[in-house]
Amino acid sequence: MTAREIKLELPSYFEDFRDVLVKSTVDYIQINPTTHQSSACSSKMGGQPYLPPCLHLPKDFLGKDMLLLAQINFADSYFPAPFPSKGLLQFFISSTLYEQASTLNGICHHQTFHVRYISEADVQDLERGKALLPSASMLKEYSLFFDSRKQPVSLTDYQLSHFISEETREQFSQQHFQLFDELYGQFNLAAEHKMGGYAYFIDADFRSSHPHYHQYDMLLLQLLSDDKIDFMWGDCGNLKFFISTEDLTALDFSNVLLYCESY
To answer: What is the CATH number of the domain that holds 54?
Structure first.
């Protein structure tokens, strides 16, 4: 789909930015958690992961089994490239990380989380009953359903300045007697459970001042505190997994970054 073919609904005061916002628009997957019962191999938050015979639960820095945060079965829906179309992607976190989430703001140590991809062949083995189920999880289980969506650059993603400069935003604020950020945040805050697309930050995007982190250009998973499903990360916080487009294309999850926030 070309930029001209993208239909983007905008508030009237952002019409002058239509062309540049359309150019910034990308595909992403909105995640919708529900209380419906999930099967062992389906997409879920919390609960029990599938473990093929050759794999075990990952261990944290204390040598304790990690918790399943989320499991994504790519066969459950259409996921835009470079996400795969088959297999399972599992996100694990340390119980210590979960318990101390309210005190964490920033990049998490790699020994407090683990991301693992299970290929289609292994999933087929699991469906033949070769899964190993661990003991009960402290994270409540929710089934996940997905919606394909499009999104222009979000307010707090550092890439906003690539499309709309700070000078232009200041000029807009003076012209409309209201801050650009306030109005744009009402339009596109990106505060939702999602995979792909642009990120939401409570404060600033940590990547803006650290060029080294620009390589983490793909939002692999974003989960927010959500009263509807009784999911609370710290003090109404959120967590985001980032990966490079190159690594995601290669299905290499050895260099994933986890960033956590809490009020």
So the answer is: 2.30.320.10
User: What is the total count of domains within the chain?
Assistant: 1
pLDDT tens, residue by residue, 190-204 = 999 999 999 999 989
Q: Identify residue 132 by its one-letter amino acid code.
A: L
- E-strand stretches of the chain: 26-34, 44-45, 67-73, 88-93, 106-107, 113-118, 142-151, 194-196, 218-224, 238-243, 257-261
Alpha helices in the chain, H assignment, sequence order: 18-24, 95-99, 120-125, 160-163, 166-176, 180-187, 245-249
Beta strand pairing call for 218-224 and 67-73:
unpaired
Q: Which domain holds residue 143?
A: 3-261
Q: Is the pTM of this model over 0.85?
A: yes
User: What is the distance between the alpha carbons of residues 257 and 263, in angstroms, rounded to a whole number?
Assistant: 20
Q: What is the pLDDT of residues 11-70, one digit of tens each?
A: 999 999 999 999 999 999 999 999 877 777 899 999 889 888 788 899 999 999 999 999
